[in-house]
Amino acid sequence: KTGLGSSGSFSTALIKAVHTYNQKTINKRALAEKACDIEINKLKQPSGKQDQYISVYGGISEFNINKKGFVEIKNLEISNDTVSDLENNLLLFFTGFSRNSSMILKEQNTNTIRNNKDIIKNLDFVKDLCLEIKQSLIKGDCNEFGKLMHIHWQNKLKRSKNMSNSTINNIYDFALKNGATGGKLIGAGGGGFLLFYAKTPNQLRKAMKNKKLEEVRFKFDFEGVKQI
Q1: What is the pLDDT of residues 34-45, one digit of tens each?
Q2: Strand order in the sheet with 193-198
């Protein structure tokens, strides 16, 4: 309930573990699809496929998903310097709120199925924005990536009144005043973790520590789910 894709990660790891225990192999696509089938079809969760696929494949990846649900996976051609920049300057903070993403995602899914013009326009805009984000990362322009994160968050807020609250908004505004170029709430919204990009990470880190916000340090994983 933190927006970090933990249910998808748990599902894929469990399926991999069961196969390994039974001395059976399963390829990456089959593993991701089995996890998706459990969450989306059997448990009826209003979930996409991105969490399961990224936990299986790892890396900094682009997913193209067609209307039949087939996922095309492509690793972005990002330099080692850009990866280092992101790892050094992306900061993740817990908001103090955990939430059930189903309510927000169900509302968005219902509006999409009903062809709500505002939600379709919002989602189309974010899709185009993602292509800009992709290009900024390929070019190694991480500061531009931070600015585009901010634009993404401003548009995500329009999708649901449950997307954020006054406490989260205050934290976000405080971060922008203390070194963050941009950021967003991770996952469906409503709580969990805020991710920020900052060219002066220690300034932001110190300011957020004074706000009693817990930082979670992380690095990118390029292997995905695996047997240890």
Answers
A1: 999 999 999 988
A2: 90-94, 193-198, 180-185
